[in-house]
Amino acid sequence: MIESLRHSKLSTVIIHLLKGILFRNEQPALWQDLFDLENEVRDYIAVLGLDLQIDDSEGFAWLFQQTISVDENATEKEKTLPRLMARRQLSYPISLLCVLLRKKLVEADATGDSTRVIVSRQELQNSMLVFMPEKSNEAQTSEQINTTINKVIELGFLRKLKTDGENLEIQRIIIALVDADWATSFNEKLTTYQNYAINAA
Predict the structure, then answer these.
(1) Which of these CATH numbers, 2.60.40, 1.10.10, 1.10.1760, 1.10.8, describes 2-79?
(2) pLDDT tens-digit profile of 103-119?
(3) Are the C-beta atoms of 146 and 157 separated by less than 8 Å?
């Protein structure tokens, strides 16, 4: 009975991770199961060519795929397992929004007021407009930004608040995407984006 329950918990944790990011604040019981079964999770996903990354301080965990050598004398094709986790090429608007979200986290952390950072759709719209190519149709630009925000929600970097559809919480997993090297060159990157917007206008 105990072994069956343990196996059920292991399966649930792995399935959740295969579907996306596990957040401690959203799934506290599942998060505890992950820590209790961490070695077993790692052993299981290793067979699939996956590895587990846990950020306990920020409260999130996710899977990523590594290139695995099968044999020293194998061909390049044989050395790599088929990709289970798809690689996503982020578009300019999505990359821009991710950088802006990371900047807001840095600013919030500097004040130390709260670990949660809530932003409104309108606030994100205004922040992105500065860096978007000018178009004669403002409604079209606004729609593109709103589509970008929805896509970033799908990617797991923003979360809708159940009590308020207009406000969104920045998920701290964005730290893993926009790392310290990005953080030290925010102004340079944002200037590049702004130049892009001017040139593309």
Answers:
(1) 1.10.10
(2) 888 888 888 766 788 99
(3) no
